[in-house]
Write a structure and sequence with these properties.
This protein is mainly alpha-helical. About 55% of the residues lie in helices and about 10% in strands. β1 and β2 form a beta hairpin.
Length: about 200
């Protein structure tokens, strides 16, 4: 990558002629820092922009790879990641209403209903009518699910140490601080978006 006058030029590798199929290069999405237009072979971006874009790709890849690695653990335990997520939230709010659980997980009521039905059939949870309003269903963990949580907690230390191998304690603390700040910024962006302010312009 050549640097000229403080601007980095990012070259497009193996750009195909228009109308021709693109052969797989074996490179991951993270090898391409940003989407480039067809009109130029060289697209100038500042070094800061290049780094910021790469950071976005890396955070996405880490999230995806972590989910994949955790899925392998969950598969051995007999539950999917989606089912495990329901169990985790119920461990913190056992007996909550099914509609509240759907809101907390940010998924549709129908989708959650299917998850809950499978968990109930597997003996992980139990649905009971609300004592005050019989039309409302509350969801409770069964002993089998609580035992699963204990097993996962025992595996969590090993999983985290493998995931963070080579990262010092100080670096982990700094990483947590930085990612927490990024999360807060994103939450602020969402809360100030037009869809969250009844059509009002962002502040």
């Amino acid at each position: 990558m050549a640097v000229k006058s403080g601007v980095a030029s990012v070259a497009v590798k193996n750009k195909p002629a228009r109308g021709k199929a693109v052969e797989p290069s074996g490179e991951s999405d993270a090898d391409t820092p940003m989407a480039l237009g067809d009109e130029e072979d060289i697209f100038p971006v500042s070094r800061a922009t290049h780094v910021d874009t790469r950071l976005g790709f890396i955070m996405h890849d880490i999230s995806r790879l972590r989910r994949s690695a955790f899925d392998q653990i969950m598969k051995k335990m007999g539950v999917t990641r989606a089912q495990w997520w329901v169990i985790v939230h119920l461990s913190r709010h056992d007996g909550m209403m099914q509609v509240q659980l759907a809101d907390m997980l940010d998924i549709g009521k129908a989708s959650l209903g299917n998850l809950v039905e499978r968990l109930e059939a597997g003996g992980w949870i139990d649905r009971r009518s609300d004592p005050v309003d019989g039309r409302v269903k509350r969801v409770y963990l069964k002993r089998k699910a609580r035992q699963l949580i204990e097993e996962i907690h025992s595996l969590e230390f090993t999983f985290n140490e493998q995931k963070l191998d080579g990262v010092t304690r100080g670096e982990r603390d700094e990483l947590l601080r930085v990612l927490t700040n990024i999360k807060a910024n994103l939450l602020n962006m969402i809360s100030n978006s037009p869809t969250q302010t009844n059509g009002a312009a962002p502040k």
